[in-house]
Amino acid sequence: MRWDFASIFENTDALLVGAAGTLRIFAICLVLGLSLGLVIGLGRYARTRWLYIPATMFVEVFRNTPVLVQILWFYFALPILLPFEMSPLAAASLGISLNSAAFSAEIYRGGIQSIETGQWDGARALGMRWGQAMRRIILPQALKRMLPALTNRAIEIFKMSTLASAVAYVELLQQGKLIASLNYNPIEAYTAVAVIFFVFLWPLVQFSYFLERRLRRDE
Amino acid sequence: MTILSVTGLTKRFGATDVLRGIDLDVARGERIAILGASGSGKSTLLRCLNFMERPGGGTIALDGEVLGREGRTAERIYRESELIQVRQRVGMVFQQFNLFPHMTAIGNVMEGLRTVRGMAKHEAEARARKELARVGLADKADTYPAHLSGGQKQRVAIARALAMDPEMLLFDEPTSALDPELVGEVLAVILALAEEGRTMLLVTHELGFAYHVATRIIFLADGAIHEQGTPDEVLKNPKKERTRAFLASHKQFSF
Ligand SMILES: Nc1ncnc2c1ncn2[C@@H]1O[C@H](COP(=O)(O)OP(=O)(O)OP(=O)(O)O)[C@@H](O)[C@H]1O
Ligand SMILES: [Mg+2]
User: Fold this and answer.
1) How many domains does chain B divide into?
2) ipTM above 0.90 for this complex
3) Is B58 helix (H, G, I), strand (E, B) or coil?
4) CA distance B88 to chain A (A)
5) pLDDT tens-digit profile of B141-171?
6) I need a labelling partner for B171 at 20 to 30 A (CA). Which of A72, A119, A130, B40 fits?
7) Residue B205 CA: which ligand 1 atom is closest?
8) What's the A68 CA to ligand 2 centre distance in angstroms?
9) What is the domain-level CATH number for residue A146?
10) Going residue by residue through chain A (219 aa), what tens digit of pLDDT does each one get?
11) Three-class SS state of A28
């Protein structure tokens, strides 16, 4: 067989639209997933039952169901139960964000628990409130330890964005499928999609290494 | 004048009674050394005094004002804001220093001023430099704890506590985690604070230091004050058998 990348270059526009869609859903899910994860992780760490129990239930539900099923459920089932329409973007963002929140909640909880109790003692002995100690003393140290795990989460989120094609959200894989079916060139189309993902993700990982080095300057 | 007044203080962890009714009045300017075997409740006593641990029973009064209010059980009910005030007035220095590793020495000293007091940055920085100079570490202001020796870390921790202008200082074995050659520099700082007339409670195994610096010695056994008096009374002429046995077991004891 012969590789025919010309048919890919002819469809650069379609791929650009797809890349924009992928970046958009990635940004939404990264922010929503990691910040909601922090809130739920703090809930999992709380001693109050009224925070601990719902946070734990959330984590268990979203950790133990496939993201693809969640996305399909939000798109097709939720609008039947509730009186509003779901756009493909909304359904896919919800599924991916909530799933990421569940996983990152466990990262946050583990990171916070890994900080020695002496740090809490030092903060409280100065007269800090719980929130001040968390924000100024505990979280900055925990985040540093969690950075590799959170980077992995970010990479996962980026790759999970392809699941949005299941509800016909316009992103890279969706556009790849479209190009492949119009030009009968699945090898080239999917190779191009894979390459574009790599081109996005590789710098992201390099950036996280850079961040880790920066954060280690106090050692 | 009494600054701190403790009556009938008890604390239990699970099934163990760690403190069994401590009565203690601390006068302004007094320096009390607390001695006792491992597990006798020394740390727990100190930690109850600034409410790092909630007392199980009894009362603690600061400047004549009894803290907390009565609840349905022996344990009083404390408001968080009240405890935060107390912790600012009663500074604490830990055996393991508990410096914040992600902040420089001066960052550590400024932290309470900035976050708790809400002091402006330049003001907090000036104050922190003063405190670092007092413990002889002006030149280490921008060094992270990981690059400080144990003795330097503990001096930063003392500066951090001093920056909050505490009326009273609690030291929990401040030199126990240090290599022997670094003990002296920390004791020198504490001695200087003693000479300023600061009120302090000091848990220590350095009996010689306790003898020189303390105005009163308390020997704790099984969560109760077993014997107390002046350094001469307790360290040179202990009346109780257990005190004698404890002192005998500290071979390095010398005046
Ligand atoms: N947070 C805690 N939970 C359960 N038990 C505790 C806790 N803190 C202290 N204890 C127990 O209380 C007792 C007294 O402990 P404490 O630390 O006050 O003794 P100490 O006199 O300071 O001993 P050391 O000289 O070893 O520091 C010990 O038996 C200890 O195991
Ligand atoms: Mg102790």
Assistant:
1) 1
2) yes
3) strand
4) 5
5) 999 999 999 999 999 999 999 999 999 999 9
6) A130
7) 25
8) 54
9) 1.10.3720.10
10) 677 788 888 889 999 999 999 999 999 999 999 999 999 999 988 888 899 999 999 999 999 999 999 999 999 999 999 888 899 999 999 999 999 999 999 999 999 999 999 999 999 999 999 999 999 999 999 998 998 899 989 999 999 999 999 999 999 999 999 999 998 889 999 999 999 999 999 998 898 888 888 877 777
11) helix
CA–CA gap between residue B57 and residue A33 (Å, rounded):
45
Inspect the interface and report whether the beta carbons of B99 and A122 lie closer than 8 Å. yes
A1 within a domain of the structure (yes/no): no
What total number of domains does chain A contain?
1
| B193 Cβ inside 6 Å of ligand 1 | no
For A135, residues 6+ apart whose C-beta sits below 8 A from its C-beta are none
The SS3 of residue A198 is helix
Q: How many CA atoms lie within 13 A of B103 on its CB side?
A: 21
Sheet containing B16-27, strands listed edge to edge, beginning at the edge strand earlier in sequence: B16-27, B2-13, B57-62, B65-66
Q: What integer pLDDT is reported at residue A43 of this predicted model?
A: 92
If one counts every other C-beta atom within 10 angstroms of the C-beta of residue B90, the result is: 26
Question: How far apart are the CA of B61 and the centre of ligand 1, in A?
Answer: 24
C-beta atoms of A126 and B52 within 8 A: no
Q: Is residue B40 lining ligand 1, measured as CB closer than 6 Å?
A: yes
Domain span at B209: 2-251
Sequence-distant (6+) residues with CB within 8 A of A175 are: A11, A14, A15, A17, A18, A21, A193
CA atoms within 13 A on the CB side of B127: 21
Residue of A nearest to B80 (CA): A129
Sort out which chain B residues have CB atoms less than 8 A from A114's CB and list them.
none
Q: What is the pLDDT of residue A45?
A: 83
Gap between the Cα atoms of A158 and A141, Å rounded: 26
Task: Calculate how close chain A gets to B103, using CA atoms only, in Å.
Answer: 7
The CATH number of the domain where B181 resides is what?
3.40.50.300
The pLDDT tens digits of the residues spanning B32-51 come to: 999 999 999 999 999 999 99
Q: A126, B144: Cβ pair inside 8 Å?
A: no
Pocket test for ligand 1, best of B9, B22, B43 (most atoms within 8 A of CB): B43
Sheet holding B224-229, edge to edge: B90-93, B168-172, B199-203, B31-36, B216-221, B224-229
> Which residue range is the domain that position A137 belongs to?
6-218
* Element at A84 (helix H, strand E): none
Residue A18 lies in a domain: yes
- Asked if A145 has any chain B CB less than 8 Å from its own CB, the reply is no
A118: closest CA of chain B, how far (Å) = 5
